[in-house]
Amino acid sequence: MGTAVAQLSEVQSFNTLALHAGAVADPTTGALLTPIYQTTTYRQEAVGKDKGFTYSRSANPTVSALERRLAALEGAEYCTCYATGLAATTALCLALLRAGDTVVVSQAVYGGTVRLFNQVLAPFGVTAEFVDTSDEQALREAVTAKPIRFVFIESPANPTLQLTDIELAAKIAHEAGALLVVDNTLLTPALQCPLELHADVVLHSTTKFIEGHNATVGGALITSDAELHERFSFTRNATGAIQSPFPAWLTLQGVKTVGLRMAQHSDNALRIARFLEAHPRVTKLLYPGLDSFPQFELARKQQTAGGALIAFEVDGGVEAGIRLMNNVRLCALAENLGSAETLITHPASMTHADVPAAQRQAAGITDGLVRLSVGLEDPLDIIRDLTQALAQTKGAA
Predict the structure, then answer these.
(1) pLDDT in tens, 340-378
(2) 181, 223 in Cβ contact below 8 A?
(3) What is the pLDDT of residue 178?
């Protein structure tokens, strides 16, 4: 994992690792922050003798520093960073799948993941079986029906927040000779550690909570399996999907506060979820931090807090939900989550528009579902904004 991580091997504090893991003071100037190594190539000392870097499509010192930090935070040995979260998912698939392979994927999952499997990989002979991975029997049947290369889950799922028991999913996958990949984007290692629950690979869209400030796009694959890491590294180099130095540098700054931010995101979201649950215009409310959440006990088992995302529906259905989203003032109507600012999204027409309607409905992504990514504003200001916007939904058909 690198010298800096080795020096911190006795440090157990997540927040300390978030600040220091992977960082090496610039040997020339002593600069505290890892420099932005904005370079294409590197002068080599002699033929066959370099300082660990030869060309920035293969590796870059700024990107490597971020990789060491993310690996340390997930309690892993290895990390590779990519241009986007979907680039990381693509590299995962290209590294592990061949024509004729089948994977099992959570039924409720990020829309871009569905599009990748259904519209990009399917023509190359890869089959994705979308399954309710929260259902033990359904998952067992899916992985035993035919040989499976890996099981890909999101927990919580985007945007329904449905949970999958990660430890159980790992057991079922491993018994079938398959790997378990967990997209940990929504909680980050500050709130959930899939590798401790025996997952094989953790995936992140670092665009979201890892960086946390709406300033970059990026992705990561994290594992402690040396062979998997070698495959990911080879595929990234072969496809040119590496993250650029400047986004990596910005992400290094953002991740310093991920522990503090996730705690505040969760505190704010819990207060707002309680407000929404009691509001007469809200007909359905899902938040893993509430004891009314259907999988509350599982959330307590594998998460340390509820996270930032809330899913809800408003009396009046689709029209009411659209009125709500068109009338917020502080909350931003946007296609993202995980930023310092509160974002509100209509999944059916935005983030999950490419998911077939039948699959959306089966996964619980109704046309009236609202996704709220709670930010770091004063929660009372968010509640005031939602109050006035909810008032505009009265009379919706």
Answers:
(1) 999 999 887 766 556 677 777 766 767 778 999 999 999
(2) no
(3) 98
* Alpha-carbon gap, residue 359 to 364, rounded angstroms: 9
Other C-beta atoms lying within 10 Å of the C-beta of residue 360: 23
Residue 385: active-site member: no
Same domain? 209 vs 269: no
Question: Which among 191, 178, 187, 194 has a CA at the least distance from the CA of 139?
Answer: 178
- Same domain, yes or no: 355 and 252: no
Domain housing 341: 259-391
397 part of a folded domain: no
| Three-class secondary structure of residue 242 per DSSP | strand
The residue-averaged pLDDT of 317-332 equals 92
Q: Are residues 228 and 370 in the same domain?
A: no
Task: Name the catalytic one among 78, 110, 132, 323.
Answer: 110
Residues 314 and 338 both lie in one domain: yes
- Output the CA–CA distances (angstroms, integers) from residue 168 to 153, 164, 222, in the order listed: 12, 8, 20
- The reported pTM is 0.94
CATH of the domain at 129: 3.40.640.10
Between CA 42 and CA 1 the distance in angstroms is 22
Return the axis-axis angle of helices 317-327 and 379-391, rounded to nearest 10°: 130
- Tell me the C-alpha distance between 72 and 197, whole Å: 16
Contact present, 98 and 124 (Cβ < 8 Å): no
Whether 183 sits among the annotated catalytic residues: the reply is yes
CB 90 within 8 A of CB 241: yes
Is residue 237 domain-resident?
yes
Residues 242 and 282 in one domain: no
Report the domain count for the chain. 2
Answer positive or negative: Cα dihedral of 312, 317, 319, 324.
negative
**Rg (the chain; Cα; Å):** 21
Domain assignment of residue 61, yes or no: yes
CATH of the domain at 277: 3.90.1150.10
Give catalytic status of residue 208 as yes or no: yes
396 occurs within a structural domain: no
Catalytic residue among 132, 165, 183, 385: 183
Residue 70, CA distances (Å) to 189, 248, 309 in order = 9, 11, 22
| Confidence grade of residue 2 (pLDDT, cut at 50, 70, 90) | very low
Residue 277 buriedness (CB in 10 A; 0-12 / 13-18 / 19+): middle
If asked whether residues 29 and 82 sit together in one domain, one would say yes
360 as an active site residue: the answer is: no
